[in-house]
Task: structure prediction
Amino acid sequence: TLLSKVRQSSELEAQAARMMTSAINDIKNAEERYINNLRLSSYPPPKVKALIEAVGILIGTPFSRAPSALDVWAWGQKLLEDANLLAKLASVDPLSSECPFTRDRLQPYVDQFVGGPDASSLTISQTLGAIANNFGTVSPFVQQLATLVAACHRRQLVTEQVTKLASEIDDAKATSTESDSAQGALQIKISEQQALISNLQSELSIVRNNMAAASEQLSALRQKLHNATQLASVLSKVHVSNTEGSFDSLIQHL
Result:
């Protein structure tokens, strides 16, 4: 229903906003020792390298795969040396018109983080649980980074979903308006037909009254016709003459 779509849209936005706010707060509170431990790692797991690539995308400095470029982890270590890294991450706004990344760009990384084919199909709690399982044993900071990437991905995903829902809501409103107009026109037609029926009933009543009067007149005419017929019958049987006796005979028949 229209109301359920409005509620769904509002709840999706609220959940994504809470996830984003929580992820930003966690990044602001990240501990320096965990950042240094990660930067000094010599052989981090592939999923951590992929995570650092995603972080570079978030802040607009993606890893270059040009032949002359550093390998991904050497590049990642330099990224982690940036004293302003946390401030850059804390200022990430996935809904900004100047946002340097898109949901599609982050999608393959988030899919790796949650260990599934499509992170978009997971709920926020499922996503956070999968990230905790995959990164929680590595480092709290790594988990915080993964959560921020997933939150940015979710924020843009929900914006797309809400935009689609908004279009569906507008369509439903338009359909409802058309339906209301059609119902209004139908009600006018019904009122017109009811008025017509009322007029016909009045005319029928008049006709019935006229028919009753006509029936009475017809009965009276029939009686007169009967009387006239009887008189004619009598007259046909009497031979009228100029004599008094014949006239008396006529009188007797009458």
